[in-house]
Design brief:
transmembrane helix; 215 residues; single chain
């Protein structure tokens, strides 16, 4: 039963990540429903294999981001550059939302929920549902970004703002990775993990602000 709950909650997570990507970058989800179902199921299976079968928790997010980039490139047919950008933004946005929920749940329940299996599943499902709400808001009010072209053969023309956007994404990936590693090593939000999470949030805000300028 625990394995079934783990698979279902993981499936919700990956569908939520795709929903965030679609909402943030104004991608019509109806055009990619079969691809999304297949890709979400594939990532759930690989995530289960990484975490529960091989117990390599520390490497899981990095493998998942790499797989997500490949999926956006091969299955959704975006240029590799844009696949990397939207994958990192979607995944890390979800990660920051989940980190905020971890802090909130720890405060409410007065325990470290990362060591509590039932609450971990509640955390995953809650974060996923909140991400779907964000997707609906972006989709309904059409407030995402549309500067990402579709197709593998599109030309890449980088402006000064584009370089700033790339720098913010690289900074975001670095700070979020550091925050995750600190968290995994201590299994709690110590000061180092928390500060890196704050820096990740700053980089994410910088990305959204620069992307708005690019629009």
């Amino acid at each position: 039963m625990d394995n079934l709950i783990a698979v279902v909650s993981s499936l919700i997570e990956f569908f939520a990540i795709f929903a965030l990507i679609f909402g943030l970058f104004r991608i019509n989800i109806n055009e990619y429903l079969p691809e999304t179902i297949f890709s979400g199921s594939l990532m759930t299976f690989i995530s289960y294999w990484i975490r529960d079968v091989n117990n390599i928790e520390l490497a899981a997010p990095f493998i998942q981001i790499g797989l997500l980039i490949i999926i956006m490139w091969v299955i959704f047919r975006y240029h590799l550059f844009w696949s990397a950008l939207i994958s990192v933004i979607g995944y890390v946005t979800y990660g920051i939302i989940q980190a905020i929920f971890v802090l909130l749940f720890n405060f409410i329940f007065m325990i470290d929920i990362t060591n509590h299996d039932t609450l971990k599943y509640v955390l995953q499902i809650s974060t996923g549902c909140f991400s779907f709400i964000i997707f609906w808001v972006f989709y309904h009010f059409n407030i995402g970004f549309n500067f990402v072209p579709h197709g593998r053969s599109v030309s890449i023309k980088l402006s000064k703002t584009s370089y700033y956007i790339i720098a913010s994404v690289v900074g975001l990936l670095f700070t979020f990775s550091a925050s995750y590693c600190f968290f995994e090593m201590s299994k709690a939000f110590r000061d180092d993990a928390f500060y890196m999470l704050v820096l990740s949030t700053v980089c994410l805000i910088a990305f959204y602000w620069l992307s708005q300028k690019k629009e």
